[in-house]
Predict the structure.
Amino acid sequence: MTDFLSLILEPLQEVFLTFKIFLPNLLAMLVIMILGVILARIIRFMLVKSLTAINFDSWSDRMGFTTLMRKGDLWAKPSAMLGSVVLWLLITVTLMIGLSALKIPTIDSLVEQFFGYLPRVFSAVLILIIGYVLAGFISRGVLIAAVNSGYHYAKLLAEAIRTLLTVLILAMVMEQLQIAPSIVLAAFSIIFGGIVVALSISFGVGGIDAAKRMIERESAENCAAGVKDEIEHI
Amino acid sequence: MSDFYQSGIITTLHQLGKPSLDRLETELHGFSKSRPIALVLPALYSEFEGAAMPGIVQELAKVKYLNEIVLVLDKGTEKDFQRVREFMSPISTDVRIIHNDGKRITEIYETFSRNGFNVGERGKGRSAWLAYGYVLARGKSDVIALHDCDILTYSRELLARLCYPVVNPNLDYVFCKGYYSRVSGKMNGRVTRLLVTPLVRSIQQFIGAHGFLTFLDSFRYPLSGEFCMITDLARVNRIPWDWGLEVGSLAEVHRNYSPRRVCQVDIAANYDHKHQILSADDAAKGLMKMTVDICKSIFRTLASEGVVFSDGLFKSLLVAYLRQAEDTIMKYEADAAINGLKFDRHEEAMAVEAFTRAIGMAAQTFMENPMTTPLIPNWNRVSSAIPDIFEMLKMAVDEDNK
């Protein structure tokens, strides 16, 4: 009977002992989480206040970032939006630190992977922001140049260039984030290559007559020059 | 049948005989291909629960020449917005509803505010202005027509006659205002009859012939809420957001265009809508509030055109106005008598006394701060400060209407 009882109690004791060892870690995680969330909220509050003080929302309206948000059907203030992004980023970091306090090897490796991935996320965001500004700048430059040259489809050309640059930037971002890099590379090569081939074919086909005229004119000039030479020799 | 006399410096288009509505609509349908028309309807949700709106929707469902209808819904919840969408569904024209209290449009107003634009308090002026912005953002219409949503005697002939002068490319009008008689057993339209016309004529006694006063006096019903204009005008006009909306809009039209390109048209044999209370004891509501706002708008417009106002002038003006208004009452009494209309002379005299007090208040406010009349900035200025505002407004309305 005693053996039978010990058979039942031993695993329970083991569980209890494991839990006893685990409990401080769990408490540490909870404390980290609570403090982290409070700190994240304070940082969000201070960030939003600072952004409001420097008229970030108004600047964002002028620079087109608000429009970008609206395109994604996000109708909060840009400062509040940025505040929320920072808050959730900090909460995620807090969660990861908290989880690492549990000292579970599987979770530790997950946390390590997460922190290893963070620089990629930052550089992807940076590429996205700089790319968006550059695409807008180049497309506007093309629009102004095309309009000044009297090109009829200036707006279409500018939009096409903006779209091409956006595709390029998105491919770079995906590549940076290591999201299906081989597929992204293949898709990008196909799309970009396809556009270039389409342009080449359309230019080639559309320019047959023009090229023919140019070649004929060139050869006619050469012939005329040859005849003149002969006459001069005579 | 109306007379055909041309009075004032603008063109008056009378209703002579019984013009065929079919012919008018057929011609409008043809003209609208090269000059697409947008109809703007500023409405409160409460108006959809009243008697006027079902009739208006029934009539608009028969109209085929409109390119788009932009309805600005004010004081309505999300559920009310959905009900209004359902309510407007019998109309085959593309109907877009701007939900003034929705989260997206609220954020659009926030965008104006944080960029230093005071677009005023909610009301017809602000709603109309936002609707113009949306029409400009879509860029699909060349002409904007606007009428109220509380017209109990609405017929589609009103809309056709209102649009025709601006839409017809052979007539070359940029702005057309509707006029009509306001009779329902008695004479209505007290503010126009007993305030605006006598006030304009008494100011003329002091400052002599003045372009804007002559222009204003040329309109048979300057406070009518129905008008039609080219979209360019919506882009450059600054309009007041308070009750000075009609007078302020006319002032902007006068400032930007020649009176030769402005007309008024007889749009209805009779017109009836929601009546405002006089509220003689409270200048913050009813016709008294309207009166104060209208007077301030007139004073500000004249001051901006170089007229110098002084305490003495205002004191004399009150006396001159009272005399003019009393003479006007006698004219209308005779007019009512011959037409067998009820005419309460005492009530009319009480209204004039209240209006006199309101002019005094407006004068005092104007003297204390001549810049108080609120004008919403024009869309050119707004788009200059917020380059993507049209795109944002379009996205907000289109998302709401999905």
Summary: Residues 1-103 of chain A form one domain. The mean pLDDT of chain A is 86. Chain A touches chain B at residues 55, 57-58, 61-62, 64, 66-67, 70-71, 73, 75-77 (CB under 8 Å). The longest helix of chain A spans residues 2-53.
